[in-house]
Design brief:
Order of helices and strands: EEEHHEHEHEEEHHHHEHEH
Helix content: 40-55%
Shape: globular
Structural class: alpha/beta
Mean pLDDT: 96
Strand content: 15-25%
Largest sheet: 5 strands, mixed
Low-confidence stretches: none
Radius of gyration: 20 Å
Amino acid sequence: MKILAFESSCDETAVAIVEDGRTVLTDQIFSQADLHAIYGGVVPEIAARSHVEVISILTERALADAKLTREDIDAVAVTYAPGLIGAVLVGVNFAKAAALALDVPLIPVHHIRGHIAANYIAYPELEPPFLCLSISGGNTLLVDVRSYTDMSIIGATRDDAAGECFDKTARVLGLPYPGGKPIDELSQGGNDTAYTFPVAHVSGSPYDFSFSGLKTAVINIAHHAEQTGEVINKADLAASFTKAVSDSLVPRTMMAAAELGYRKIAVAGGVAANSRIRRDFIQAAEEAGCELFVPPLKLCGDNAAMIGSQGYYEYLAGTRGSSDLNAFATKDI
C-alpha cells in the first residue's frame, strides 16, 4: 500500500511516499530555517505562506522521484495536530484536496505519533509495546506505546519543551537558529561540569519535566557576565547546559521503563539528534539491559516519511478523515 504523506506543522514542508508503513520510496523536505533565522525563531505567518508556495512543487517532485503516477497512490496521510495552526492548515487542506482528487482515503495523523513511527522506518524489527520519549522544539513527552494506535502520555513538560530551551540558549550564546546543532557542535570541546544548572523535579509527578528554570539560569549567567565584564566560556556553558538537559531526560525515561516493566525504549524528535543525549541513552540502556531505538539524524527532525509510516497503521485501525477534517494547534495524542 502506497501512502502519499504531508507534514507542515512548523517550519519544514515535507512530502513523502511510504509503502506498507516501513519502506520510504521518497521523502522531499523544504526547510525554512533560513527564512526564520534573522528573527531568531519561527514566524507563524511566514511559515504558513512558505508552505503554500512549495507544497505543490514538492508533491510533483515526490511522485517523479518515486517514479509513480497519481494512480499508484492508495491513500493520503497528513499531520493534523499539533503545530502552528496556520502551517498545519496548509497541509490539511492540500491533503484533503489531494485525497478528493485521487478518490482515495484521507488519514489524519497526530504529529507526535509520527515522530514515534520514525523508529519503525529505521528499525523494521521494532513493534509495540514499548516506551518512547518524544523530544522536540514544541513537545517533551513520555509515551506509553501499547500498540501502533493505542498510546497514552505518562509524562510531559510542565512549561518549556527541551528543544525550545536549546533554541533560547543558543540565542543567549549568539549562535544561529535553530540552536540544537550549533550547541551540540560547540559543546564538544567544553567542560560539562564548569557550570552548575538545576535539574527540576515536579512534586507528585515523577515522570514530568520542567525546563523553564534551566532556561532562566542560562539567561542569568549571561546577564551577570554582561554586568560584571566576565567572559563566558561558551563551550563550557553549552556542554554544561546539554548535560543538564540530558540529566533531566535520561534518568526519568529509564525510571519509567523500569517501573512499567518495559525492556524496549525508543527516543524520537529533533532533540534526539543531540550527540550527548544519544550517548547517555546508549549507556543507560546498556546498563539496564534494555533495547534502545533512536532514529538516524535524518528522521529525527520533522519529515513526511514518519507521517506516512504512522498513517499506514492508522489506516489499518480504521482511522479516516473527511472533508470537514480540521487542524489543531494542540491535541492529546
